[in-house]
Amino acid sequence: MPVDETLNARMRDALAAHVGISEKRMMGGLCFFLNGNMLCGARRHQDGVGRFMFRVGKVNEPTALQDPKARAVIHGTRKLGGFVRVDASDCDDAALLRWLQLCLEHAAALPKKD
């Protein structure tokens, strides 16, 4: 599952104004963190589709899944609570910023990790 540098660049650009952002390769792609807490990720899946993954938090997940373009994240055989995925083709720049705002609000409420 190749890393998708185009999706990563979109994510970096959208997060550029925020302090405390870091990156780490994991889950077959690249994940982004705020003060050590996972925010989101991006990768190209085996089916060739580029997708964004957003950590919205378990409290926000039901509301997030009401968006017809959002799906639950399944990693292997396990559903990841508090995460949703959106195909890159369904996530223009304005939508990306809206999803990231939800992720940033969730992560900002968590204690910092080193």
TrEMBL record:
Gene3D superfamilies: YgaC/TfoX-N like chaperone. Residues 14-107 form the TfoX N-terminal domain. This is TfoX-like protein.
